[in-house]
Amino acid sequence: MLVDEKYYQAAAPRSLGERVTCLARDRIYDDFVAICRPRRTDTILDVGVSDVVTDAANMLERKYPHPDLITAAGLGSGEDFRAAYPLTRYVQIAANAPLPFADMSFDIATSNAVLEHVGSRAHQISLLRELIRVARKVFVSVPNRYFPIEHHTAVPFLHFSDLGFRVACRVLAKTEWTQPSNLILMSRASLAALAPSGSRAEIGYTGLRLGPCSSNLFLHVDQMAAG
């Protein structure tokens, strides 16, 4: 199995789930561009790219017009990724380890649908600190647990509470998703709580816009603005 195969079970190729995911991620990309305002010469680090190459995966690489300025970092060996995006540099990284880049190596660092999978709150904080360490601007997006359909399991509404989610996953034989090592359900408050003190992080809704029930959340840090 490819490293990221299990994360696309609810968005199989050519399914309704994939079409909805693509629409949400296209809108996340639009917000990334509007908020980070990448210049033609800006270097971008994309952490947590997928070794599963589908229409729903690797949003930035699919859409950004200057792929040669992207460095993609993923857990897998990246053969399929490299074949699909030959102009983009690929670097294999280790889970929950420091990123193999010097301080402020990039103009922008981004990560989509990764933070909820790193295994613990401590690992989430560590990843955010690493992104802030290596880039001037950071844009991170995650699924919003208050979107009516849970992204990974397609459980409706019951994921609004931990107990409801555990019961639904037990009934559907999807109990692996109740383990923090696989998934940490994210809310606006829990995402904001991860931001390092003094980072002046902006938290907002993105993806399919439904107010507090929007499909995704973003965290943005601009260290030049903070300075």
Label this structure with key terms:
227 residues, alpha/beta, Rossmann fold, seven-stranded mixed beta sheet
Quickly give the structural class: alpha/beta
The CATH class assignment is Alpha Beta
Mean pLDDT: 92
- Tell me the CATH superfamily: Vaccinia Virus protein VP39
**What order do the strands of the largest sheet run in, or round the barrel if closed?**
3-2-1-4-5-7-6
Strand runs, count: 7
Cα radius of gyration in angstroms? 17 Å
Overall, the morphology is globular
Number of domains: 1
Q: H/E order of the elements? A: HEHEHEEHEHHEEH
Helicity level: 25-40%
**Which architecture would the CATH scheme give at its second level?**
3-Layer(aba) Sandwich
Tally the helices.
7
Which strand-content bin applies to the residues? 15-25%
Report the span from N to C terminus. Answer: 45 Å
Major sheet characteristics: 7 strands, mixed
Low-confidence stretches: none
Describe this structure in words.
It is a single chain. The chain has a 7-stranded mixed β-sheet. It has helices at 16-36, 59-63, 79-84, 121-134, 162-171, 188-192, 223-226; strands at 44-47, 70-74, 89-92, 106-112, 135-143, 202-206, 216-222. With 227 residues, the protein is α/β, with parallel strands linked by helices. The model has no long low-confidence stretch (mean pLDDT 92). The chain is globular. The chain has a single domain, classed as Vaccinia Virus protein VP39 (Rossmann fold, 3-Layer(aba) Sandwich).
